[in-house]
Amino acid sequence: MTAPPSVSMLLLRNVPLFSALPEQQLALLTSLVSRRSFPRGTTIIAKGDITESLYVVISGRLKVMMSDEEGREVILATLGPNEFFGEMGLIDDSPRSASVVALEACEMLSLSKRDFKKCLEENFEMSMTVMRGLVKRLRGADQKIESLALMDVYGRVAHLLLEMAETVNGQRVVTKKVAKQDIAKMIGASREMVSRVMKDLQSGGYIEVRPGAIVLHETILTID
Ligand code: CMP
Does the pLDDT at position 157 exceed 90? Predict the structure, then answer.
């Protein structure tokens, strides 16, 4: 049997959630967190489950989602390296508010509820990082409500692309691979509608689709 991969001080020091912990606490934490790999498609936590642990993403991407019995799905957010999840249930002792599923093979650190609460109790900066994470989620949720209530599908797609874009050589570019089906689940539209809108945005000169990248032109800012 192979031993589980160990967790070094250096790895923890580079995780924003833990980076403010004093040396001694960080050393203690190396024996409290476990490091695990999950294949693509794994449900790491399921909505309604009882809450046991907090997770920190080391590598890979995940989606936070909800679904109904017919398999319809809404994606609330996507998460990547250095982000954490599973804190909500730990804070209010409620069941998991959503499911979190690996979009790619992922590596994760997990920390038990007891140890997470103990860390928060002893470290104000870590509590602030968790609070900032919660505020970020609330802002994201507010934006989603705004786009669902006030924008048409053109506005929602444009908004999402701008949100996902990074600046490369002065241009706003989306380099993350995201399927049209997943865009549809993020903005509450059908895949066919998303395809049509993307085509229109392309022919209207708002976006340029290149292999592995979508370049956003300034004019996309005029869509709402
Ligand atoms: P918890 O409720 O314990 O389990 C599901 C987790 O998904 C939750 O904690 C958060 O970490 C995360 N989550 C829930 N809603 C959102 C959201 N709107 N945006 C990002 N992450 C979320």
Answer: yes
